[in-house]
Structures are given as C-alpha cells and as structure tokens.
Amino acid sequence: MVLTLALALGGSYGAAMATPELPAEQSIPLRSMSAARPADNGSRLLTAVQGPGRILELTVHSAAMGRAVTVEVLPAADNSRPAPTLYLLNGVDGGDENGSWTSSKNWFTTTDAVDFFAGKHVNVVMPVGGTASFYTDWRADDPQLGRNQWTTFLTEELPPVIDSAFATTGVNAVAGLSMAATSVFQLAIEAPEKFRAVASYSGCVRTSDARGRALVNTVVLGKQGDPANMWGPPSDPLWAANDPYLRADELRGTAIYVATGTGWPGPLDTLAGPGIHGDPVKLADQIVLGGMLDAVAHSCTLQLRDRLRELNIPATVDIRPSGTHSWGYWQQDLHNSWPMIEDAITD
C-alpha cells in the first residue's frame, strides 16, 4: 500500500480536469530575445517562438544537464515595466507525459492558470520535464531518467536567462504540486536569495525518515529510475540534506503557503466535477486513489505545520476539510495562494 501511494503521490494522479482549449495564437509585444544573456556556466537561450495565445515557448540549454530544456512562459500583462516571476512546477510526469506539453496534463493545460494570470503583473514560467526527478541535483546519471541537475537549472541557469529576456524585477516565487510540492521547499532552502515565497500543494516534505524514503523510492522506481543515483543509499547524508522538514529553520524569512485536502470526497469529487465527464470509473479512481494520496499529504502537512510552529516560522497552512489529489483542487490552491505570493514578490 505504501508503495502504491508513493508512486501516485509523486505525480498528478486522480482524474484530471478536462484539458481546456488553448487560445489561438495571437501577436503580443515581446522584449527582444537578443536581450537574453547566458548564465555564468554558459547555459543560454537557444530559441524563442510564439506558442498558443500569449505563451512563449523557449528552449534553454542547460550546461549542468548537457541538453536543451523546454520552458513555457506567460509574460506579464504589462511588459513596459519590470515584473516579478512565478515559477510553476509540475508533478512526477514533468508536464509532458504524452511527449508534448500541449497534449499532457500540466499547469497551463489542465488548470485556468493562463486565464487567471492574463491580467496580472507577473511573469509565469513553467519548465517542462523532470520526470520523477524531484527537481533536485542527482549524484549520478541514470540509465532511464538521464542527467538530472534541476536544482542547478532552476536556481542558477534559468533565472538569469528569464531575467534578461523579460522585463523582470529579479524577485521570484516558486509553486508546485504533488512531487514538486516537496521540491519547492528544497529550492528555497538551497537558494533563499532567489525565492521570496513558496507555495506547496498536496505534497509531503519528509524525505529521509522510513516513510519518506519509501515514498521517494517508489516515485523514482515507478518511472524505472534508480533512487541510488539521486541521493545514494539510505545511509547517505544527501537524504537528510534534501529533507525540508529537517532543514525547516532555513525557511525563516520565506513566505510560505501550504495546502492539502484530507482525502475525504469534497465538492469537486462528483460526476459533474472537473475532468470526470460523468464517468463513474474516473470518479471512483479520484475518490479512492486520489483520496488516499491526499490523506498521506494531509499527514505530512500536519507534521510540517507543527514543525514550523515549533520554530516560530510564519506560514499559511490551508487544510481543507475534504478534497482529493486532483487538478480541480490544485487550481483552487493556486488561486487561494496568489494573494500571499503577490504580496511577497511585489516591492
């Protein structure tokens, strides 16, 4: 049971919302891509093309990973003045499980994020990829999952490219769901100067205790990866070094928003709910599997809440009385956390 729960907790499981129609391509003002400068290690912008609607599709070379990474950007509504940046991270499949972000479940296709941020003064950046990587720096290349150096990419390589290519203030926040709901804390701990705010939806911050290792191992194994290539054997100190619960004191000064359901069926867990389309099989999957997953996330969130209270670190902890591990609730979480994020990243 633990293994089944762990595998699903790593990704965007349960019945997803119906993929909305992306807006037709339209011309929008763009800051010249020639303004983009490389990161200190040589990572650089390779291509920038117009995507659906206001979305820009970037290809960024990561020197740390030795390959190109697809990055989708929704520029701030007003590009005549600097804007902060929100990085949105996906779950275990990295937002491209079907080989293309436009045909896969992710923040831009499966929630109303594109419309929600349409008039807001913030650049929204969604990296694509990172399957079962926990968006961390792996100690070794993996035969199945390749070279993963996502902490380096998200803290050292991508930000200078985004900051120079777009009108940014250099102030950032990061939000993630499921697997990435763990990652956002570790990113803020590793690079506190990069992220003023973190928002975590339906995640589990424990990674180095027995249950945490079981969860992490099964997420990685579920995509045919080898957990030893990530943080080594269980005795390796990298496991503790990547456990946000153990390093929670380093989150002091970071604006924090954490949300989860309890696993009990909620208002979106009905035949008329997002992504269900009247299908009782989809609904059963969302209620049973999605319910178990958010029950796990609920337990982890209570631990984190108590730890932050013990350390006297302020945090907004939104524990819904019901709700499953599914996109409809993550959309609500994004909406609910935005005021805190906006306040933290707006000078």
UniProtKB/TrEMBL annotation:
GO terms for molecular function: acyltransferase activity, transferring groups other than amino-acyl groups. It comes from the Bacteria. This is Esterase family protein. Residues 1-18 form the signal peptide. Pfam families: Esterase (PF00756). Keywords: Signal. InterPro entries: AB_hydrolase_fold (IPR029058), Esterase-like (IPR000801), Mycobacterial_A85_antigen (IPR050583).
